[in-house]
Design brief:
It is a single chain. With 127 residues, the protein is mainly α. 81% of the residues lie in helices and 0% in strands. The protein is built from five helices and no strands. α1 packs parallel to α3. The mean pLDDT is 87.
């Protein structure tokens, strides 16, 4: 069980490694525009987000670390907010449907965090 707890927190760390890159791309897109922004890091962040979410989910749902639900929700929100430049650009150009798959790792982290919190509360006798 200890190894699964470590794996789940490593998943959070992997997601956190990619978010500065996405924030950088978003900032470049907003300041320079689409012709000068290096957007390849968004793909790398998306891959890190997928791997991190898989590790977080697998380790967290089985071993149930104490503060992991909060960590999952926070990292999911940070992940989603790191793509603010892509969101604004997509809204401006009317291509919002292409933006939704990028958000999936962040949304999955938030959902997994809420599920883990609910399971923990029911186990402790809460709501």
């Amino acid at each position: 069980m200890r190894a699964l707890k470590i794996i789940s927190w490593v998943g959070v760390g992997i997601i956190a490694l990619g978010t500065p890159l996405a924030f950088s791309c978003s900032e470049s897109l907003m300041s320079i525009g689409p012709r000068g922004a290096g957007v390849a890091w968004w793909g790398f962040t998306w891959i890190l987000g997928g791997v991190g979410t898989a590790l977080l989910s697998a380790g967290g749902l089985i071993s149930k670390p104490r503060f992991l639900p909060l960590g999952a929700i926070v990292i999911g929100l940070v992940y989603i907010s790191s793509f603010y430049g892509l969101l604004l650009y997509s809204l401006e150009n009317g291509t919002i449907l292409g933006f939704i798959p990028v958000l999936l790792p962040g949304l999955a982290c938030i959902i997994v965090g809420i599920v883990m919190q609910r399971v923990e509360n029911k186990r402790r006798g809460g709501y």
